[in-house]
Amino acid sequence: MKRWMKQVGWRHAVGLLAVAFSLGPILFVLSAAFNPLGTLSSSQLMPTGLSFGNFQKLLTDTDFPKWFLNSVVIAGVASAVSVFLSALAAYAFSRRRFRGRRVGLLSLLLIQMFPQFLAVVAIFLIFGTITDYWPSIGFNTWWGIILLYLGGALGVSTWLMKGFFDTVPRELDESATVDGASHVEIFFRILLPLVAPVLAVTGLLAFISTINEFVLANIFLTDSGSKTLSVGLWGLVAAEQRNTNFGIFCAGTLLTAIPTVLVFQMLQRYIVEGLTAGAVKG
Amino acid sequence: MRLRAMGVVAAMTIPLLAAGCGGSKNDTATTDNPSAKAATGELVIWADDKRAAALKPFADKFGTENGVTVKIQAISKDQQTTFVTASQQGSGPDVMVGAHDWIGNLVQNGAIDPVQLSADQKAGIAENALKAVTFNGQTYGVPYATENIALIRNTELAPEAPATIEDLVSAGQKLKTEKKASEILSLQVGQTGDAYHLYPLYASAGGYLFGTSANGDYNAKDLGVGNPASVAAFKKIATLGEKGSGALKRSITSDNSISTFTGKKSAFLISGPWAITDIKKAGIKYDITPVPAFAGGKPATPFLGVQTFYVASKGKNKALAQEFVTNYVTTPDLAVALYNAEPRPPALTAAFDQVKGSDPDLAKWQDAGKNAIPLPAIPEMAAIWDPFGKAEAAIIGGADPAKTIEAAGKTISGSIK
Amino acid sequence: MTTQLGGPVTRALPAPDNDEPPERNTGLTGRIVKIVLLGLVVAIAIWAAFPLVANEAWIGLGILVATTAVLLWLYLTPRHIPAKYLAPGTVLLIAFQIFPVLYTASTAFTNYGDGHRGNKDEAVVAIESASVTQVPGSLQYALSVATTGNPATGPLVFLITDPVSKQVSAGDADGLKKIDDATVSSSGKVTAADGYTILNAGQASLRSKEITDLAVPVDGGAIRSSGLSRAYEGKAGRAYDKACDCVRDTTTGKTWTADESLGAFVAADGERLAQGWKVGVGFSNFTRVVTDRSISGPFLSTLVWNFAFALGSTGGTFILGMLVALALHSKKVRGRNVYRLLLVLPYAMPAFAMLLVWRDMFNTDFGLINNLFGLHVNWMGETGTARLAVLLVQLWLGYPYMFLVTTGALQAIPAELSEASRIDGAGAWQSFRRIVLPLLMVALTPLLISSFAFNFNNFNAIYLTTEGGPFPADNPMNGATDLLITYTYRLAFGGSGAQYGYAAAISIFIFMIVGVVSAIAFRRTRAQEEVYA
């Protein structure tokens, strides 16, 4: 028993504590979502009543299903493409030595730090023009906002992946090169499979941050049918309505987590299993 | 080999090019003349989420009657800034729905046009609402609803309407000692204060924000925050604060003020018409009376807010926007529908008369707001909210009134210039 | 700009590599894929070119052609391998991140902001159209918009009915003339008139601009449209005079002269017209940042807290995330999938929603935290507790991220490595410190740096919880939990109207500080990076 405690038990203890910490506030949201009154201070940690009224209202009074679809499509496409773009760039930054490499990496980081609330003016400028010339990729379109999000594809996820690429021994590529593999083959056949867990993690993180983004989506998607979940939910609690719609808002928050959890479930296999360790290190 | 690759690319391109051309023809046509996109004109209206939903059927009706397409779009956050920025870049709407106190800023950015109402139309709009949308002698929009705060009380806990703030506090304290309620009053303050909700008390205690010039317009040069009158006013307010009677507390915020009342933790709530939906849902018997004044003080005048339709200066379809705002919004049907979506008193007298029979609250709101003064629409007002609110929160928390409000006054006058 | 659509995938193509010995012929499939994708790039470029040509946007076309040409050249020649991998993301980065940043930075040298958003012509139009009033004592007319020609293109005419005499007149830019043979509806609107085609609302709305611009000159003013069914006699109260570069009030004669350094029309008595325009102001926004005591005074303490916040958020989430990841990184722990799923939930909830929920949980009298633990702490009202609270919220929001990343990184570390060291007699802690941690850090250092950078500017974390508070009673501009970015936001947008130019100038200062710090931190990663090199 003592041995079990030392080897496994403490792991469960840490896990359970972390789960308790994580779930506390979510329980609060859960009870508010199922609370028929749906106001804030009437919500306690333990649900006081069970009612699906809030969910019902959310689905009938708002365009929630459409927001849901928009979010899943936009976040899905944008995160998939951006992981790919990021992996390409990370490969160059990790494996290739070229002039401006470190400056480039640092610049990627610094650009992310410019306050986004100031960039809104420039984004109106750019997409105002784009909407005039190519309305199919302008305001209120999936393509437009996906493009906008892809502008940030090189950034945090590039850094993340570069770090992981660095852990793959270079001897691996070198021996492949000797065997006559081109850099493209090295990238697709050797490196990408090795970093599959990282691709999965990056993909998930990109998915989550895209689905939660609302500063850009708020100005970009104004047709009620084209909104994303985060903008739509914000609209529910805007200003003085927060009291009134809190229950509906919490219901929406819970439902919003569903696609993320599903994506996580899908990717968990890659994150958890990876490839057999032996193969990784050759 | 490279040349060959190029050749193949070129060959590949030709069918794609053909396809591209085919597809592009339509695009060229549309971009040549943006308005030709639809066979008819298009009117784009921006509002917040709730009003956008209420407007939809009427916009559709206007569209079918006039053979035009009407698009309602909801801006969920930062409506005013988004409108100004989008307008400037040519991506804005033709009609904007928003509060009347935006007018000063919208005018200085050239974002809205004045509307020319006929004498009959003007006569049909409540006088104070019309005054609120008048700026520098011009009418800048058509009001459709007014709102002001009042004292809402739980008639089971407090059958009598308090005549003064002092009465209210002693009634509240009595309920508290009898354990019938846990709070004296629910008035939202929060950590950063709330100038809008505090204003009636501030006015009753003798304070003002901006003085008025001879013609009744606000005068930004005469700032009332930080002067001796405001210090005296806040000394009175401090007696209600956390170190005083505890009627005002920072823990009551915009998030929980209404639910404190609906949860019967407090018998009194100072709030606006938006609170009623919840109160009815909670099944509380209530009455609406004017915010009581301090004993021997000035009247506790609330602010009057007016929801307004604006014609955007840089809209693509201004003639149609003018038509919609001046000749369609001024009909009672739309105002009644918007009232049904959210129970705020309609600004059109005809619409008000139409709904007041079925809603006894309306007359009470109007009565509570009969002395209400329109929220100042001058751009300088934006400099007041934040410092004033924080000073309020600090004083309610126990800070020295004179020092705090004088510092706030300095900050405000510094940013007005 | 659309070339990017094809761009991403293009990257994937095997390029013939002449500079990488041994020369190798990539497979036929690879070549076909490459050709198809490049063809797609060209096709998209051509699609994008048509509207540009039609609108004679030659600069845009030039950029499009140049971008496409560079991309084709890049992928059809064997050199510049890193560029081949970087190009697709970079094209998007330039268009949607670098350009906005540079554009914003350029406004730091202007007075861009509320009241100064457009150019001078726009300001003049705004002043003139805001001054149009109905001529006192004049009438409002029923209006029908008509034309003498084709409804879509023919010259526009206003058919107006005098409400008193019921006289119908036709007006255009030349003036008003009476017509007699018109049919008038009960509301006074002309429904038919010989020689005129009445436009319906749909037709009229297509010519909106012409209708709004049409002013029919009459004595004392001009008849203008108010919508599509009413007209009024209006008069512009103010007019721009090119000769004196000033705006003149047509009744009082008062003038406001253009001041190009302020971007406003100013009268002799100092009165300024509200509608101004954007002008360059040189470095004055920057000097204002440096010289204004109310900004430079609290700057240092805000900066220190800002660093503490970013370090605390990054460090706290990393340590907790790693601890949990390590704990669950063992095949012996059952139900790891369930643990992972539950742990990732905080990250899956919309962050802004959870920030609002946390703020309510910290409420003094009604908050869950005080109620649960029987406390009466004014969390958001005291400097220390407010800072603790925001860090706790960040910890909750952020540690699942670190947990996930560390879990991913741990998979890449061969179990044999640490097991081998254990067999060598090293304890669990030592094998972690000597083997696992260094390997983890290789993978995670870049991430920690970027997480630091993100938290340094984490606007929502502060704005949606404390709004920067608590504030000292005598200074409402700078609060105890303010980050530089929330402070900037308040300085720039909290006063009377948004001041983008000023905000951009402050941002550039912050940008430089962060840039220097990041660059120093970044230098230290060089050694780690070459571990396997």
In short:
In chain A, 76% of the residues lie in helices and 0% in strands. In chain A, helix 7 runs antiparallel to helix 10 and helix 12 packs antiparallel against helix 13. With 533 residues, chain C is an alpha+beta fold.
Which key terms come to mind for this protein?
heterotrimer, A: 282 residues, mainly alpha, MetI-like fold, 2 domains, 0% strand, disordered C terminus, B: 417 residues, D-Maltodextrin-Binding Protein, domain 2, 17 helices, globular, ABC-type maltose transporter activity (chain C), membrane (chain C)
Helix content of chain C: 40-55%
- How many independent structural domains of chain C? 4
Task: Using the CA coordinates, give the radius of gyration of chain C.
Answer: 34 Å
Q: How far apart are the termini of chain C? A: 37 Å
Quickly name the level 1 CATH class of the largest domain in chain C.
Mainly Alpha
Strand content of chain C: 5-15%
Helix vs. strand class of chain C: alpha+beta
How many distinct helices of chain C?
Answer: 19
Number of helices of chain A: 14
Question: Largest interface, and how many residues on either side?
Answer: A-C, 124 and 126 residues
Secondary-structure element series of chain A: HHHHHHHHHHHHHH
Percent of residues in β-strands of chain A: under 5%
CA(first)-CA(last) distance of chain A: 37 Å
Overall pLDDT score of chain C: 83
Poorly predicted segments of chain A: 274-282
Q: Main sheet of chain A, how many strands, which sense, barrel?
A: none
Using the CA coordinates, give the radius of gyration of chain A: 23 Å
